[in-house]
Amino acid sequence: MKGKPNIIDKDTISVVSQLDPDHIPTATRRRFVELFGAGAMVGLAGCMGDDDESAEESEPEEEEDEEGELLDLSLEIPSAIEDGSPTYDGRLSFHDYTNVSQGLYMGGAVARGSEFGHENYRAELADDYMREMGEECLDCLDEVMDSFWEDGALTPELRERDGGWEPVDSVDITEYPLAVYTYQAHHRGPRWEDEGHDDVYNGLVFSCAPYISSLGYYLLENHYEDGQFYHDTDRSEFDTESMANGLNAINGIGYAWVRYDAPDGESDMGKVDHSVLHAFLGYDEEELIEVIDEVVPVLDDHWDDERGIYDFGDATEYDLRTLAALVRGHKALYEIPEIFGDGADYTERFAERAAIMVERFLEADLEEPWGLPETVEYTTDGVVAASDTVDVAAQWEFITVSFGSWTITREREGELSPLLVSEYNDDLFDEIGEMTDTLLLGGMEYQRQDDGSVVAELDYETGDVIDDTHTASAHGAFLTGVGNVYRDHEAVERARDWDEADEELRDRSEAFHDQYVECAEQLREQFIR
Question: Acidic residues compositional bias: what residue ranges (predicted)?
Answer without folding.
Answer: 49-69
